[in-house]
Amino acid sequence: MTARTRADLDSLAGYVPGRSIPGAVRLASNEVPAGPLPSVIAAISVAAAGVNRYPDDQATALVDRLALRWDVPPTQLAVGCGSSMLCQQLVQATCGPADEVLFAWRSFELYPIITQVAGARLRTVPLRADHSHDLAAMLGAITPATRLVFVCNPNNPTGTVVRGEELVAFLDAVPDGVLVVLDEAYHEFVTDPAVGDGMALYRRRGRDRDNLAVLRTFSKAYGLAGLRVGYCAAPEPVAAALGKVSVPFSVNSLAQVAALASLDVEDELLARCRGVVAERARVRAELLALGYPVPDSQANFVWLPLGEQTATFTEHCLAHKIVIRPFPGDGARVTISDPSENDTFLAAAREWRCE
Q1: pLDDT under 70 in the chain at which residues?
Q2: What are the tens digits of pLDDT across the range 56-79?
Q3: Which whole-number Å values give the CA distances from 235 to 92, 186, 211, 272, 353, in the listed order?
Q4: In what order do the strands lie in the sheet with 212-217?
C-alpha cells in the first residue's frame, strides 16, 4: 500500500528559511540582533515551570492587554502562532476553491504558498519600477472571485512602503466583499510619517467600512522570533472565523507570557529599533556609494535588486561566512544587524564590487 498525498503539492515551492551556518554572520531572517530584555527572560523562566499544562487557548490576558494598548474591542482581535500563521488562517477563513487571493509580487514569499495550501487561487501584480506596490494596478486586478488582498507594508523583501493617503484611497475603492489585509510585521522600524499607522487606520475605518484587517508580530521589533506570536485586528466576524480555523493551543504559554512582558517594556524595545534604523541608514548610504541601487527601506533590512547576479553575490557572501537571503533572478535581502556585523557585510560588498 502506498500513501497518497495531494497531487498539486508536487508543484508547491516550499518556504525557504534563512540558512544557519555555525560561526557565520546571520543576515537572512530579519531577526533583531539583541535578545529579549532581562525582565522578559525572567518572565519566561518563571512560566517554564508550568509547561506541563496547556496554555490558554484564547490567549485571554494577551488579547485583553492588546485591546487596551490599541483601543480595539477584544472581540476584534485574534492571536496566532506568528503573523505568518495568521496569514494562512485569513485565507482559510475567507476563501474556498473558487476564490482568489491577490497580492503584489515580489512580496512575502509565504503568500503564494498558503494560498495554494488553502486550496484557493492566487493572482499577482508586479511591483512598480521603484519596487513598491502598484495599488492602481492591484485595484484593476480585482475580479468577482477576489476575497482577500495582502498589502505588505513595509514590503518584504524590498522594504518599500505604501503611504497613508494612497492606502486610504485604495480601501475606499475596493469592492464590497473583499478584505484587505495590511501586513505590518515591520511597522516598528518605519520612520516616514506619511506611512501612517495601520492600527490607527483600522480604528477609524471601523466607523465606515469593515474591509480592513491589520497584522502585527512580536517576532521582529520585540525580539521573540523563536517563540512565534503575532496578532490580528479584524472585523468581529473575521476575528471569530480566525478562531474557528486555528489549531488549538497553537500559541504556547511561554510565548503568551513573553509577549505580555514585552509590552511592559515596550518603550525600551522601541528605542532599540531606533538604533537599527540608524544602522539601516548607514548601511544603505554606503551601499549606494559603492554603486548598489538600493531602494529606500522602512524595515530592518535592505534590498539589493541584483537580478541575475544575485546567486553570485550570495555565494560571495557565503565565502565570507555571511548568510543573506537570496531571491534568485530578482535580488538579495540583507538584514540590518549590529554595527560590527554590518561592517563585515559591507566589507564583503565592497570587495565584490571591486572584483
Answers
A1: 1, 7, 10-20, 206-208, 355
A2: 999 999 999 999 999 999 999 999
A3: 16, 22, 8, 32, 50
A4: 77-80, 230-233, 212-217, 179-183, 146-152, 100-105, 121-126
Tens of pLDDT, residues 137-158: 999 999 999 999 999 999 999 9
What's the pLDDT score for residue 177?
95
**Phi and psi at residue 120, to the nearest 5°:** -90, 175
Q: What is the chain's length? A: 355
DSSP, collapsed to helix, strand or coil, labels residue 264 as helix
Residue 239: phi and psi, rounded to 5, are -60, -40
Predicted confidence at residue 188, as pLDDT, reads 97
3-state secondary structure of 103: strand
Cell numbers representing residue 338 in the block: 549590529
Cβ atoms of residues 217 and 188 within 8 Å: no
Question: What pLDDT score was predicted for residue 21?
Answer: 72
Nearest to 115 by CA among 136, 137, 145: 145
- Please identify which residue in the block is written with the cell numbers 565565502: 319
| Residues in a beta bridge with 333 | 303, 325
Is the bond leading into 333 cis (omega within 30 degrees of zero)? no
Question: 15-47 as b/e, with b when 16 or more CB fall inside 10 Å?
Answer: eeebeeeeebbbbbbbbbbeebbeebeebbeeb
